[in-house]
Amino acid sequence: MIDLRLLREDPDRVRASQRARGEDVALVDALLSADERRRSSGMRFDELRNEQKSLGKLIPKASPEERAELLTKAEQLKADVKAAEAEQNEADEAAKQLLLQLGNIVHSDVPVGGEEDFTVLETHGTIRDFGAEGFEPKDHLELGESLGAIDVERGAKVSGSRFYYLTGVGALLELALVNAAIAQATEAGFIPMLTPALVRPRAMEGTGFLGQAAENVYHLEKDDYYLVGTSEVPLAAYHMDEIIDADKLPLRYAGFSPCFRREAGTYGKDTRGIFRVHQFDKVEMFSYVAPEEAEAEHKRLLEWEKQWLTSLELPFQVIDVATGDLGASASRKFDCEAWIPTQGKYRELTSASNCDGFQARRLSIRYRDGKKTQPLSTLNGTLCAVPRTIVAILENHQQADGSVRVPPVLRPYLGGREVLEPIAK
RNA sequence: GGAGGCGUCGCCUAGUCCGGUCUAUGGCGCCGCACUGCUAAUGCGGUUUGGGGCUUACCCCCCAUCGAGGGUUCAAAUCCCUCCGCCUCCGCCA
Predict the structure, then answer these.
(1) Any coiled-coil ranges, and where (predicted)?
(2) With A186 labelled, which of A3, A58, A66, A417 sits at a CA distance of 20 to 30 A?
(3) Above 0.90 for ipTM, yes or no?
């Protein structure tokens, strides 16, 4: 959630942010009046309660006849206090509900617009010219099947569309990627974490995934658990309700977990292969930092992502995601998009978001610097989303004979293997 | 799944049986001040969190907060109910 003080002091800024996201600006005014009601009903309750307390102190000391009178008065007060409390609770709840609907304030440098209105910040690596090399590139599924690495047919048989098996070298490739990614993150000072994949509603809500993103979240109704779409959720909720000493910051975690996404509203999109699937594994970086460090940390996360993609020898570009495509929690988001030869375009492989205090406020995570206690900033960035990385590696490193060159960074984790060869059918 | 125990303002802890004197005790840690060649020790004061009022700010004041939420009562850390978490034992299990 955003800072209510900011809303009171500079409502126009909040309105502008809401407009840039393409969301309803009327929500801001509804929230302002709800906040006012919350405040006045709170004051009324405090007053009555104060009166009740002072009256209550007199009763044990009163003489019998005074006592009877006081009790009558107290009884009346009791009803008033109860009514005022109900009013206060209702006003609090109403304000909270509105507040939870409001997305984070967008950073002023973010390009305004929808999915297609991003700004390209950088491009890295060289796109291969397969024409000059004299062969037509195969797509990742064709390659994956001939390598005995990917089986989507049986994935569909067992679990339905958008499910897959990684088999043989495919399975080994995932393990290699995960190990290499965790090694890079650990080297950079991240604490490796294996996290729960099922979380309570509070964790899901606190990270901002139950707003407009809710339709993409799996929910186990019988137990009221949510399946996480990213380990960002358990990593953010890890320090929920805690106050962290300033000298402990920054805290950096590298989470590894399965990720589950319903992919509602993507019918017919990326249906071939394993680019868009319901379940995949991912190594995610997560940082807790002091607010004044957030922007610098955001750039650092991006640098680590670039280091990773560069080490895999993939050509990619970095984009500044537009306001309409940010998601509720982020004030700014940088995506790294790798070149996919058979699609002839760059596709998202990693995503680094600066959430400022948005998640920290919802999850009640603060830090103490001297006397001050205030929400800290949380940031997250993908290091390796496995299936998409496999797609990019297979397609970009394929050779004319249908084999795939293994980038050196992965070789130690693949028993020194330099090439993945097609297997006989 | 069954039985029992526990949850107090950083940590430990008193208080809960028997409701009001709890404005929650004491210790540790931490912060400030005093004293002191330095350090240590000692003394004094402070030290939950959230909301609100007053303020440039500080200070100060009010309300809530004893795992969470309800209930009983004029009044709840204390009595009742539900839930959550942790621990012990039993059962089952990768």
Answers:
(1) 67-101
(2) A417
(3) no
If you measure CA to C1', which residue is closest to nucleotide B20? Answer: A60
Which residues, other chains included, contact A247 with Cβ-Cβ below 8 Å and sequence gap of 6+? none
Question: Integer distance in angstroms from CA A371 to C1' B44?
Answer: 22
Statement: A115-420 belongs to CATH 3.30.70.370: no
Per 3-state DSSP, chain A is made up of helix, strand and coil in percentages (nearest 5) of: 45, 20, 30
Q: What is the pTM of this model?
A: 0.92
- Shortest-distance nucleotide from A86 CA to C1': B70
Q: Does A174 qualify as catalytic in the annotation?
A: no
Which residue, among A388, A383, A205, has the nearest Cα to A286 in the 3D structure? A383
CA-closest candidate to residue A232, choices A209, A201, A250: A209
Q: Return the bridge partners of A404, or none.
A: A398, A420
Domain borders along chain A are 4-101, 115-420
Strand B contact at CB of residue A74, distance < 7 A: yes
Structure tokens at A73: 């008065």
Which pLDDT tens digit goes with each residue over A63-111? 777 778 888 888 888 888 988 988 888 888 888 889 888 999 999 999 9
How far is Cα A219 from Cα A224, in angstroms, rounded to an integer?
A: 7
Strand B contacted by A77 CB (< 7 A) = yes
Query: What angle do helix axes A169-187 and A386-396 make, rounded to 10 degrees?
Result: 110
Task: State which nucleotides on strand B lie below 7 Å from a protein beta carbon.
Answer: 20, 49-53, 62-64, 70, 74-75
A40 is catalytic: no
